[in-house]
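agent: user wants the full assembly modeled, not chains individually. Plan: 1) parse entity lines 2) check alphabet per entity 3) run joint structure prediction 4) return tokens. Steps 1-2 passed, two entities, 386 residues total. Proceeding.
--- entities ---
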Amino acid sequence: MRAISPLLFQLGLAATMLLGVNIAIARLSQNTIPRQHLRALERSHDNEVLFVGNSQMADAIHPEAFVTGWPGSHPLNMGIGATLPVEHLQVLSASLDKVRPKIVCYGFFDLQLNSETRSNWQDVIGNRALTYYVRPDIGARNFDDNLWRKAVFRLIATAPLLRERSLLWARVNALRADLAALGMPHVKAQRDDPNRRFAQLETQLDVFTLRSRQVVADEAPMAWPVRDMLQDLCDRQIPLYVVEMPIPSAHRRTYYETPAWAEYRAYVRQRIAEKGGYFIEASAWVEDSGFADNLHLNKRGAADFSRRLAAFLANSTAAVTEPPSQSPQ
Amino acid sequence: MFGRLKHIFEYLGGAADDKPRVLPSPASPWWGLWWAALIVSAIAFSGQASKFIYIDF
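--- prediction returned ---
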């Protein structure tokens, strides 16, 4: 017993310290971007125009410009950077638990609608951590393929130190980069170049073409979160507009202005229409000067896009008061 | 001074068996804090496995 007691004390002290660190991280994470959006949701009302998507959508909606294009509308942008369709479904479901929007717009780029959505705990960091606390019942579906992954999901969801570990990592990464930049003034500039970082998202053209053709040839279903979004909104009779988000001309020329993408787009448009949704081809709506980097709109680009989208939606929703039978072009 | 510090780190890292006098005995409950700090440090410094930096945008 005497030999065990010190060990128990040590374990108790370690557990107490870990509990304290968890409480501190939980407090630190009160103002993460997803939580700010959740608070905005608490203040929102029915009949808003709800936007869901990743950072492209988060940066694309300029509320004042949107209202200019559609007077009397109330945009609520729940787009959150660095998220995937499963988190978009979670955000949408959490939003629908609180409000009944007039319409929902879901932004996508490239093959996102058909992308593989299986998550690993190593990948679910930063804003994606919302998967553990915004409708976690949906997030857990990405981890329910075996008991181990189920247990890992529950453990991480319970412990803020694990769930929000990117709060620590971000600081450590910054420290590492600053140390690496000592005596090397150009290193920091390269690290912060967004085009360099976002270029990593681009797939090789031959792989992109092959994948898009495979989807059409196999009549592959869309990713399950996208299917669930479509089904849920169809059941609730809330119109969903799936928006092919604005993208710079270089990307369009390489990836979108191809026969393969035209076939993929037609296929996706049809799939969405089958569930009563609409497809908006907006990838060329903003000229290159309206982009902050090779993926996101700048303020002027967002204002232009928002006005045009608002006008489009105002006309569409005025024309369609019942679930649609055909996508507007 | 440097030798003592080196000895402390060697002991903490498991490279030396004889405990430096400045450290508490192996039975001291304060080692619990040490292990907890190591766990937190490992999580903070273990980085991420994904290809893309998702943290700061």
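agent: reporting back. Residues 51-57 of chain B have pLDDT under 50 and may be disordered. Residues 31-45 of chain B form the longest helix (15 residues).
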